[in-house]
Amino acid sequence: SIMALWVVLLLLGCSVYCTGLQNFVRVNLKNPVNTVHDEYLSVTIDSRTIKEDWAGCNFSAQRIITLAKGLAPAYLRLGGTDGDYLIFSPFGDKTTKRATLRDQVEDVHINFTMSGSQWDAVNQFVNTVGWKLVFALNEAMRNPWPHGEWDSTNAELLIDYTMMKGYHQIAWELGNEPGLFHKEFPLYTINITSQEIVNGFKKLKDLLIKKGYPNITIIGPDVTTSGIHGDLFRGFLKELQYSPNLLNAVTWHHYYGNSETMPLSDFTDVKVLDSFFSQVADILLLTSIYSYTGDLWLGETSSTYGGGAALLSSSFVSGFMWIDKL
After folding, report:
1. Which is nearest to 242 in space by CA: 287, 207, 292?
2. Other CB atoms closer than 10 Å to residue 8's CB: what's the count?
3. For the chain, where are the E strands, in sequence order?
């Protein structure tokens, strides 16, 4: 009801601003058109933040804890490009270093370590505020490197540590936007196949079962906006037909455009907003073709990719894009 009233106020405000006339809208709050999931809307923190030792994230701050409890239930996803450079070391250094200016300007990615204490911090936070965690494991670990199968050795180390600590509210992902591996690892020409992705998920599920991890939740493959139209995603859905219970949800990512080039006008342009509607229609068509009947999750999204459009993505106008998704 609060969201519905907020939408009405926004529409009325736009109407008065645009026409100078007063308008009245009658909304029936007794008969919803649809009902969103309890975990809508959830949050992603980029894996790069771990490399920077949670820069900007104070999980023990009482204000953050209070606000987060108000959003429960929700998922906190740790994922992103840097997730495929992350190595877990329970007793290792917290991190290699904070991102330098060169890292930020040139978008340099390097392997880095997530320590046990860093893993503890985020798990204790989600347990305190009543959220669940989604964690993207490093899919770029291949054996033999760089063109072999997924090497689950480090994932097993993390799962063992997780079991020892009693962290049982985790949904697992494997990799981030695998269709872009050839760009993220150009020196090694990694071109992962749909069969390799499915085999990796099978290996992950077998590992979780072997370890006795409770309430196993696995989601993926986290393809990009353009990736849903590629052979990799089609091939993945085709392979998934032979393992229909492998995943709890199929995930994809959506953005309306590039942070560096999207103008203010695009934030309220109906044609731009309808790109999301068109993509959902494409996803539904593809999953129908390949007989996938499970859940579909929008695993990562915002207004624009690449960090957000300056002075726009964090402003009032981006609300139109969130309402569009709702």
Report:
1. 292
2. 14
3. 43-46, 75-79, 86-89, 112-115, 132-137, 142-143, 149-150, 170-174, 217-223, 249-254, 257-258, 295-301, 304-305
Cα 285 to Cα 295: distance, rounded to the nearest angstrom: 14
Cβ atoms 76, 126 nearer than 8 A: yes
Burial label for 263, CB within 10 Å (0-12, 13-18, 19+), is exposed
> What is the number of other CB atoms lying within 10 angstroms of the CB of residue 18?
8
Catalytic, 239? Answer: no
Half-sphere exposure of 124 (CA within 13 A, CB side): 11
Q: Tell me the pTM.
A: 0.87
- Please give the biggest Cα pair distance in the chain: 68
Say if residues 315 and 279 touch (Cβ distance below 8 Å). Answer: no
Q: How many CB atoms lie within 10 A of CB 320?
A: 17
b/e code 77-101 from CB counts within 10 Å (16+ = b): bbbbbbbbbbebbbeeebbeeebee
Of the residues 173, 196, 239, 300, only one is catalytic, namely 300
**Residues 6 or more apart from 146 whose CB is under 8 A from it?**
140, 185, 188, 189, 190
CB-count burial class (<10 Å; 0-12, 13-18, 19+) for 230: middle
Is 260 annotated as catalytic?
Answer: no
Instruction: Please compute the mean of the pLDDT values over residues 148-172 and round it to a whole number.
Output: 97
Q: Which of 52, 173, 177, 196 is catalytic?
A: 177
What are the pLDDT digits (tens) for 83-101? 999 999 999 765 444 443 3
Both tokens of 320, joined, read 């139109």
